[in-house]
Write a structure and sequence with these properties.
The complex is a heterodimer of chains A (684) and B (114). Chain A has helices spanning 4-31, 37-68, 74-99, 108-138, 144-162, 174-191, 203-223, 226-229, 234-241, 247-270, 274-293, 300-315, 338-347, 350-356, 366-369, 409-455, 504-522, 528-540, 623-626, 637-647, 653-667; strands at residues 319-324, 332-334, 361-363, 381-388, 393-401, 466-473, 481-489, 492-500, 549-557, 562-568, 573-577, 582-586, 607-611, 617-621, 676-683. Chain A is an alpha+beta fold. Chain A has three domains: 4-263, no CATH class; 276-432, Beta-Lactamase, CATH 3.30.450; 457-683, PPM-type phosphatase domain (Phosphatase 2c, domain 1), CATH 3.60.40. In chain A, strands 2-1-5-4-3 form a five-stranded antiparallel β-sheet, with helices on both faces. Chain B has a five-stranded mixed β-sheet with strand order 1-2-3-4-5, with helices on both faces. In chain B, a hairpin with a 4-residue loop joins strand 1 and strand 2. In chain B, helix 1 packs parallel to helix 2. Chain B is globular and about 30 Å long. The mean pLDDT of chain B is 88. The chains are: A alpha+beta (684), B alpha/beta (114). The A-B interface holds A 501-502, 545-548, 550, 568-572, 587, 589-592, 594-596, 604 and B 22, 55-56, 58-60, 62-63, 66, 90-93, 95-96.
């Protein structure tokens, strides 16, 4: 809401305003001291009221400002309080100095109330700044219960504030005052158990805070009537301090005193163990650093160096180096040279011990167990930490200290966790690199698939002569089935359906070759058997040993009304003769391509010829269809193919084709494992 | 898939049982290669316990057939079940492989051959 400066301005304004009102009223009382008794009472009552307003306004302002402040270092916040105190003390002391000359004169009537009021003003500011600062400490960790109890505390203080209205006509019993005091004390002691913030300070910060707290306590006495204190006995001091006007101040001062003393005690007792906590925090920060040091694209060296530094920092080691599996020389070194490492290794075969165990290995004192070639005071104890994941050994970290038994078990656990973190990060890096490579390969595969897609005919020659349907599916990204149909000369159709042995990329390459050859040969006048012979020759050189290729090459000539077909080792073609209304397999002879790679191949080729008429049908497919298996292991088989084809023979070629494929997919449990092709040709 | 090898005076018999698919054909191929490396080129493939053969399995025999032929050797298949036989027939492999019904016929053929 308000900016920092303006808040203080408002505070000052309110404070001084209400204080002036109070002072002015007290002057007026002092001046009219001889006025009648009723007026005196009224004036005293008003005086109490102004005091009440003064207290309330200032406390609320301080409370508001303090609650709005952002968290800072405890020592800094306390310093703020001390400054307030110093300012107040200076104000008081100078005021006392300047009014001293008027002691004993009638002006005393004015100076006393003035000093009194001033003292109360600075005291209130100081105390409540301190209280709300301490509140932040107590509320370091928040809880509902704490919140409620703080509100109770504030309530007790409000009750204490109301004590201001005590005057000769009604006395608040000592019983009430004592009870309220005890309740306040009880709550204060309860709040004293909330000193967890102490644990989070470093050693230096703890010292600073102790200093600040002491100063605060001293400030308490600065405005107090130190000189007067010694003249009072304890009981009258208490009575004086808890005199009605000062009751609230008494409560507040009690809180500050007790909490400060308690915190000082706790801080002092926690000084020796500061280093443990600091060490843990540094170690945690180191793990974070190591974790962050491996980013994609970062060199390994950077992260290994971070690891070595973290380990050396945490363990107090003076020398160290990192070795990676598969590298003969240490990658990262600190404080030691390769020659020295070699020399050390020659005297003590520590490596042998390191490799035998999968856990951290210590050599506690070089002097005791081994004879060094030349004693080096820097080498006294050594720790070897494996850098490994569950699956792989990546290397090890070696660190040396110049004192014996330099490494303790607790610390070694932490150090090993550093090494494990680094190992995970390194592994991550490798995996990332690999997966990038795999992604590249997959891209290439996708391109191959795309290219192969293009090799299949996009559309079939729309013709008045026939109704054609063809469908192909590959089991992997790219496959070895092939089909094509060409209408070279209006009325002469050249068809091929083929299947390369094997699957995948190799098969796809051969398939592409066959397409090329078919497309060129089909544009010539060569008969199907001549075409097959040429393709065999063309492939003879490049087909892998042991690879072969089957295909059916067919030519339908609408002028001569004949179809010629060559089955080169391929599945037989199903043929329907409309005139005779018969279905039979065109399965004469034949040999696959690549089985015989010389001229004698042609001896084994057989070409069948049939007369064709409108209504005739040809169904070609690859063995993916015939060999589709169900759960029992039965193959779909030629008989079933024939049955299904006949069943759908009156549908259009496309509908029949889709229905037949659905049927086969159902048979084989939802999808067909192999590459498959189905082609249906119906003469109109 | 199991491969058993038996040596005879005139020839060596490889008995293959089970399924000869893409995975198991590697094993069969290694066995065959080893035989050839040892100088054997009269090979009897006993398929009486062979259930199924894939194109990879066929590839194994095709790939070694040239070498055997060049060395004046001979490969004889026997004991094929109808399904395997059908595969061989469809592909037209009868043209280059000698296929006989049973072991004895094969044995006799080898004796005659040498």
């Amino acid at each position: 809401m308000f900016s920092f400066i303006s808040k203080y301005r408002v505070l000052l304004f309110t404070g001084i305003g209400t204080w002036l009102i109070y002072v002015a009223h007290n002057f007026s009382i002092a001046y009219r001291l001889q006025a009648n008794p009723e007026l005196i009472l009224l004036q005293e009552g008003l005086s109490d009221l102004t005091l009440f307003v003064f207290y309330l306004a200032n406390i609320l302002m301080v409370r508001q400002i303090m609650n709005d402040q952002k968290g800072r270092n405890p020592a800094d916040m306390l310093w703020n309080v001390v400054l307030t105190g110093i300012a107040g003390a200076v104000a008081i002391r100078s005021a006392m100095f300047f009014t001293a000359p008027y002691e004993g004169t009638y002006l005393e009537l004015f100076t006393h109330p003035f000093l009194d009021a001033l003292r109360m003003y600075v005291f209130v500011l100081f105390l409540f700044t301190a209280i709300y600062t301490f509140k932040r400490f107590i509320f370091f960790i928040n809880s509902k219960q704490k919140n409620t109890l703080w509100q109770v505390f504030e309530l007790l203080m409000i009750l204490g504030l109301l004590m201001v209205f005590e005057n000769p006509f009604y006395i608040i019993s000592d019983y009430v005052k004592t009870t309220l005091l005890l309740l306040t004390l009880g709550l204060i002691l309860y709040f004293c158990t909330y000193i967890r913030w102490v644990g989070y300070l470093t050693f230096k910060q703890k010292l600073n805070t102790i200093g600040m707290l002491f100063l605060n306590i001293i400030m308490l006495t600065a405005f107090s009537y130190v000189e007067d204190l010694f003249s009072y006995s304890i009981s009258s001091l208490i009575h004086e301090f808890f005199f009605y006007k000062y009751y609230l101040i008494g409560q507040a001062a009690l809180f500050i005193l007790i909490y400060s003393l308690f915190s000082i005690l706790v801080l002092v007792f926690n000084l020796p163990t500061s280093s443990v906590y600091e060490q843990t925090r540094t170690d945690l920060a180191s793990i974070q650093k190591i974790h962050k040091s491996i980013l994609p694209g970062q060199a390994k060296e950077g992260s290994l160096r971070t690891l070595l530094e973290a380990i050396m920092l945490s363990s107090g080691a003076t020398l160290g180096w990192v070795e990676l599996e598969g590298e003969s020389t240490p990658g990262i070194m600190s404080g030691i040279t390769p020659a020295e490492i070699l020399e050390l290794e020659q005297s003590i075969n520590f490596r042998k011990y390191a490799l035998d165990t999968q856990k951290p290995y210590q050599i506690q004192d070089f002097n005791r167990f081994f004879r060094l070639k030349r004693r080096d005071s820097r080498f006294r104890s050594m720790l070897i930490l494996p850098i490994q994941t569950r699956f792989a050994d990546l290397g090890a970290v070696f660190v040396i200290r110049d004192i014996p038994n330099g490494f303790n078990d607790d610390n070694i656990e932490v150090l090993q966790s550093f090494a494990n973190q680094a190992a995970l990060a390194l592994e991550n890096l490798t995996l990332t690199e690999k997966s990038i490579e795999i992604e590249r390969f997959q891209e290439q595969l996708a391109i191959a698939r795309h290219m192969q897609e293009k090799l299949y005919p996009k559309a079939f020659p729309q013709s008045l002569d026939m109704d054609i349907y063809a469908h192909n599916k590959q089991s992997e990204a790219v496959g070895g089935d092939y089909y094509d149909i060409l209408n070279t000369d209006d009325g002469v159709y050249k068809v091929v359906v083929g299947d390369v042995s094997g699957k995948g990329t190799t098969a796809a390459f051969y398939m592409a070759e066959v397409k090329g050859m078919f497309q060129s040969l089909a544009r010539t006048q060569l008969a199907p058997d001549e075409m097959v012979m040429n393709i065999n020759e063309g492939l003879a050189q490049c087909l892998d040993v042991g690879s072969f290729l089957t295909l059916t090459s067919m030519e339908i000539n609408m002028h001569t009304k004949t179809a010629r077909i060559v089955r080169a080792g391929h599945c037989p073609t199903l043929y329907y003769c409309a005139q005779k209304d018969t279905w039979h397999w065109l399965d004469k002879g034949g040999i696959a391509l690549g089985v015989i790679r010389n001229a004698t191949f042609s001896n084994h080729l057989v070409m069948e010829e049939v007369e064709v008429h409108p209504g005739d049908q040809f169904v070609l497919f690859t063995d993916g269809i015939a060999e589709a298996r169900n759960d029992a292991g039965d193959e779909f088989g030629y008989e079933r193919i024939k049955e299904e084809v006949i069943r759908y023979s009156f549908e259009s070629a496309a509908d029949a084709g889709k229905a037949i494929i659905n049927c086969i997919e159902d048979f084989s449990g939802g999808y067909i494992e192999d590459d498959y092709t189905l082609m249906i040709i119906r003469l109109k | 898939m199991n491969v058993t090898i038996a040596h005879f005076t005139d020839y060596t018999r490889i008995s293959i049982s089970g399924d000869l698919d893409a995975n198991s054909s590697v094993q069969a191929d290694e066995a065959f290669q080893k035989l050839l490396a040892d100088g054997v080129h009269k090979v009897h493939i006993d398929m009486s316990d062979l259930n199924y053969i894939s194109s990879a399995g066929i590839g194994v025999f095709l790939s070694h057939q040239d070498e055997v032929h060049q060395k004046g050797g001979l490969i004889i298949f026997s004991g094929m079940n109808p399904r395997v036989q059908n595969v061989f027939q469809l592909l037209g492999l009868n043209a280059i492989f000698t296929i006989v019904p049973d072991i004895d016929t094969a044995h006799n053929l080898f004796s005659k051959h040498s």
